[in-house]
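#lab-general

N.A. 3:47 PM
ok so I finally got the sequence cleaned up, no stray characters, all 399 residues accounted for. can someone with queue access submit it? mine expired

B.Y. 3:52 PM
send it over

N.A. 3:53 PM
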Amino acid sequence: MTTNGPLSRYRVLDLSDMKADLGTLYLAHLGADVIRIEPPEGHSTRWIPPFAGNIPNVERSLYYLYRNVNKRGITLDIETSEGQEILKRLVKTSDVIVECFQPGYLNSLGLGYSNLKQINPKIIMASVTDWGQSGPRRNFEGSPIVAMAMSGAMQVAGFQDKAPSDAPNAMAYDMAAVYAGTGIMIALYGRGDDGEGEWLDISVQEAGIAGLFPWSVPMTTYGTVPGGGDFPVRGASMLIYQCKDGYVKIAGNVPRHWEAQKELIGKPDIFEDEAWDDNVFRRDNADVMRIAYEEYIQDRTMQELFDAGQELGLPITPLQSLGSFAESPQTKSREFFQPVNHQLVGEYDYPGPPLRMMGTPLSLRKSAPLLGEDNYEIYSVELEINDDELNNLKSKGVI
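B.Y. 4:20 PM
back already:
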């Protein structure tokens, strides 16, 4: 598949799951030829709801449709000897392989990094697992909610008087995917100097700590912030307020934002005391702040508050529904949604590529592949497997 993106010269074999499929999506957006490799029955992520038209089907998962745009797709059972040989043939002409299996699984199939490097010394392997390839938890099972909790981010999620809550989707997994995609690009750049591939070991927990909640380490190590006082956890001074037609979130931790907040609500006398200039003090007295703010905010709309924040240089964010986000002037001005046409689902609006580049513009080249959509192109045309052999592989459940 020819592209003009900045990564158009590279081929990626995508054996990922939820822990890395967003990273391979970004590589595909950047022009890489990403080949999604699934078992013959389809990858389990094809059954993640919701489904287009509320019709459960292997081709209709909105999760799968989003994360596999711009990729080609083939089916292959790598647990068979024939499947392993086909994968090795693909590795010969590829630059990157991304996988999320338990540590040691690919080694047991003769497909570990040391094996693949003998076939292609330039191959870059990115292994994304819950706990990394080594350490006491390497063989533990994981899940999106466990990953969120172990990142430390869950301790600031939810209301102060209730149990921590999970965030939508799989944020810690997505952070690992971003680190994987970034690491792959760095490795490709480095390979230009020495011509050697390398093995990237990405731990979801470490990626979650680094990307979602880096304060977990100082909180655990020190427990306090400089100047005394407990480290801010839930209930900090970035509060959510109900307004006339919904909710807004106001961020005001830095001094200039605090001054803008006071300006926003008419500089109440209570906040003249210098003690309120301290962020930790404001966090500890969030109930007083809420009373003062709600008196001003409750009669104003989200748009009015947003506009006021823009004038004051104060981050005020409306909590939008999916529908209001789609209709937002900002969303439309940026042409955030772009049309994609899927063979089964039809045409739908899709969030466009995350970057806009002048010299190598990104584009939506194709919808997520149907199960085995590119088997013929890759197996017959590229690998030159004849029809008799292909039929034999199909009958044996290899492809």
